[in-house]
Every structure is written in structure tokens, then in C-alpha cells.
Amino acid sequence: MENLSCDVAILGGGPAAMTAAIAAMESGADALLVCKQSPGNSGNIVMARAGHSANFAPEDSAALFLEDTLEGGAHLNHPDVADAMCVDSAARIRDLYDWGIPFITREDGSFDLHPQGGHKRDRGVYPVRNWGVEVARPLRKKLDADGARILENVMAVDLLVEEGVCRGVIGFHTRSGAIYAIHAPATVLATGGAGQIYAENTNAGGITGDAFGMALRAGLALSDMEFVQFYPAVIKRPESNMVVAPTLFPLGARFLNRDGEDILRDVPGGGEATRDLMARAVYLELMGGGGVEGAVQMDLSGISMADLEHFAPDNLKLFARRGVSPHSSDIYVTPKAHFFMGGVPIDGAGATAMPGLYAAGEASAGAHGANRLSNNAFTEAHTLGWRAAKAAADYARRMNGAAINPALARRHADALTKRAGRLNRAVELTREIKRVCWENAGIVREGGLLEEARSELAGIERGLAACGGSEPARLVEAVEAENMCLSARAVVESALTRAESRGAHYRTDYPEADEANWRVNVFVKKNENDFSASTLPVGSISP
């Protein structure tokens, strides 16, 4: 076992983690960025669209931005967390621009602002090429220029917790298998969400609920896990997994069923509706037989080529490569799992309920409530990543190098070694997790199906207890499968608990919102062999 130490350990490789590392170093902390792949070259950031939201318009303000965010989140957002995102949005995007991210600007130097669903003001800020690598590469370049300490290809497995305080993390090298104990007064969870628990998703392969699994095993609760956003329009034909640019919906993009009818005709807001409403409308149309081979037509005929080139150049390039006209009837889309609004609950400084532990980005809960507005993911990642790292650096300074019990790391290292000796592979159980979640805990839910999912996932978790492998790749597979299963169980338990429909959570047996009883956050914890759920007033971070 190799022992490393730092002031702030930051886990992840996406925008929240990279921004956090920059902020921690700016605060004077000795920061170590730990990623199971390579920061800037892995995870969702390399395949996501690159839209950001900020209140740059003269008639806009942070208060108005917050108002839209809370409304979009059905008022289940942690007010301090959502406020932090909105208040800091413009400053963080200016930083990104200064660091070399090529956001589109006008002749006067101001940012070119675009409309977005759920936002009452134009707040969309996009790079010239609307692709996540345009954000990832400059962030990685800045990290390297600033001399950041980066530990690549190391998967964090468990938090080192002593007397209820986080002291660091244990992990292993995904190629050599070497075990690393990273001792740190402060740790930031920023490993993303858990999109891979669904058979149909838009996420990168490694987005397996790692932060959720670590938090649950450490005894922490997760909140808002019933709220999973499904992107309504992922291109299926021509063959792809690319999302349709969200800016196209307010411009006139339409979903048509097999009879040529507008699927959003009865949806409040139509093309400017939030994603939960759009995804549900498309899914119900498909379930009612209105689709074609599991997809619906995406009609872009009402949008000019100039607007398509300006707002969705990557979509146009895909169509050109496949020989499809964007104004033809040959484009078909389907909804897929996209983003987790829930996660590790934090306050407005990114602090969790556990001393020494912070969280940011999709690993955290609080910014989005029941539904995330378009382009708020990157904004949340940068703003809360920055705040969490600043708070973590301050905490580490106050701790002043507090001693860590070496036996704590040894116990976790021994557990990892034991897991490496297990013979069974996790790949088949991983497929079962994906199937169960997609069929029983997806866009439209029902109590009986959720109960069935709860039972099946409990059985899968028992089966995973025998999975591991001496090869590092097999060990990654087993740990990711366990994290996926824990994340899936948290989703199902939360969805069963919330006996209403709100935001991205829709139950056919409770189809209406219940303001009198359910304007609360649902928390779930892992017990020895089961999960428990509780409800607390909005804005709480611990049951």
C-alpha cells in the first residue's frame, strides 16, 4: 500500500473536479486530483454538450435566475445551494473564458446569449463548437500549467472515516492494482452521477454512482434520488447517441408521432417546456404505440439553416456525415437517462453532513430540486466545485495537519485485497441492474413495479458480495457494479417513498403533485442489509 498525503483530495475528472482543483490551489492548499481515468479526457465532459447558464443579460439578475431555477425544480432545491449557483454563475463563466474556453461573443465583446427551456431570460452561453471537449481541454491545460498534482487511473473505493470525520480515501490503480491510501483533512466528492444504472442512457461508461456508493457505505444519507432526468431527444436514426441541441426546441423543433401529430401539443409550454414534461410526453407516446421502432420523428423543418448552423453545428455535422437533410423526415429520437438531480446533500458552501467531506457537481444534491433546467449542469459544476474547494481548503487549514490513524487505511486495504481474491465476475449482474432500472424505475413509475425492483436489486446486491477479481479490470468491474446497485436501490427506495408526481418523478398510481404533504426532501440511508427512507423540510442536509 502506498500512502499519500495532501490538504484537499478531490475525486473526479470532470468540470466540478477540475474547477475544484484550480480553486483549491488558488487558496494555497496542497490539492491532489484523483481520477479513475484522466481528467479532461474522460467522463461525461468529453461527450456532453457544452452549454452554460448565467445572468449576463441587462434585464436579467441572479435573483431572476434563482426564481426560474426554483420553479423548474418544483421548489425542492436547497435554497442556499441554488442561490450559490446563480449568484456565482457569471463570475465563473468569465473565469472559464479567461482560461481559454472559446465562448461565442458579440462584436462588442459581450457573450452571445441563447434561449433555453425553463429560463425566462436568454442565459445560454456556448463555445464555438458546442461540445464538452471545448471545456475539458482548456481546464486540463490550466491544471497542467498551474502544476496540479494529478493521480490518474486510480479508482477511489471508500472514504476513510474515523469517529464520524472524513480523513481521506482508499483506492487502487486500475492498471497495476496497487492500493493507494490518500490521507487528507478535506475530501471533495466530484465523480459525477449514476447514469449507467439505466440500460438506455447518454452517459460515459464510467459514470457508475461512485460518489453515491462511497457516501452510502460511509453511513451518509443521499437525498432527492427519485429525481432522474431523462433527456427527451437522443438521436436514434441516423444511428447515434447524440442529443438534439436544447436550443432548438424554443426555435421550433417538434416531436411528431407516426401520424404526424405534434406530441407536445397538449404539454404546457410546448417547445419551451422543461425536460421532464417533454421526456414523459415522448415516452407515453411510445408506450401508446405512436412511435416507429422505439422512436418518434424529430421535425426541424421550421428552423432555418442559419439557426441550425448557429445553434446546433454538431447535429448538422452528424446529419451531413450520414447523408440526411436536417429538414427531412428521416430523423428519429428517443428519451434516455441523462442526469441525476439527487446525490450527496450539501449546503451553499459545498459541505456535507460529515466533517471533512464536501461534494460538487452531479455527485451532490441541492441545486436542481425535482428537475434541472437546461445548461445548469456545467454552471453547477463550476460554481459549486469552486465553493466546495474553497471551503475544503479553509477547513484543512484549520485542521493544521491533524494526525491520521494508519490502522484505518490498513483495514480498508485488507478489504480490497480480500475482494481481489473473489472469483465471480460482475458483468451479468451489471446488465441486470440496467434492465431492472430501465423497466421498473424509469421515466414512468408505478408502486408495484418499484416493489419488484426493490426485491430484485436486493438479490443482485447479495450476488455482488461474491464478485471481484485479481486483475485490476475485474476489480473495477466489481466495485462499479456495487456502486451502481447501491445507487439503483437509493433511486427505487426514494421513488417508493414519494407518493406523488413532481418534476422528473412521475408515478401512475400518484399522478398529481401533493403540495400539502410532499414539498419535502426524501433521504435514504443504507442499513446493514436494507435501506431506510425519511423526509425532512426542504434545505436539510442530514436526517
Task: Give an overview of the whole structure.
Strand 19 and strand 20 form a beta hairpin. A 5-stranded parallel beta sheet has the order 6-3-2-10-17, covered by helices on one side. A 4-stranded mixed beta sheet has the order 1-9-8-7. It has helices spanning 15-26, 62-72, 79-98, 133-145, 210-217, 248-251, 275-287, 305-311, 313-322, 376-399, 406-420, 427-440, 447-464, 472-497, 515-518, and strands spanning 2-5, 8-11, 31-34, 52-53, 124-125, 149-151, 154-162, 165-173, 179-183, 186-189, 222-223, 228-237, 254-256, 296-299, 332-340, 344-345, 357-359, 364-365, 520-526, 531-537. It contains 15 helices and 20 strands. The protein is α/β, with parallel strands linked by helices.
- Give the fraction of residues assigned to helices: 25-40%
Categorize the overall geometry: globular
The count of strands amounts to 20
Measured on Cα atoms, how large is the radius of gyration? Answer: 22 Å
Profile the largest sheet. Answer: 5 strands, parallel
Total of DSSP H or I helical runs spanning 4+ residues: 15
What portion of residues belong to β-strands? Answer: 15-25%
Distance between the termini: 35 Å
Looking at the chains present, what oligomeric state does this protein adopt? single chain
* Sheet with most strands: strand arrangement: 6-3-2-10-17
User: Class by helix and strand content?
Assistant: alpha/beta
Q: Look at the structure and give the mean pLDDT.
A: 95
Query: Which regions contain 5 or more consecutive residues with pLDDT less than 50?
Result: none
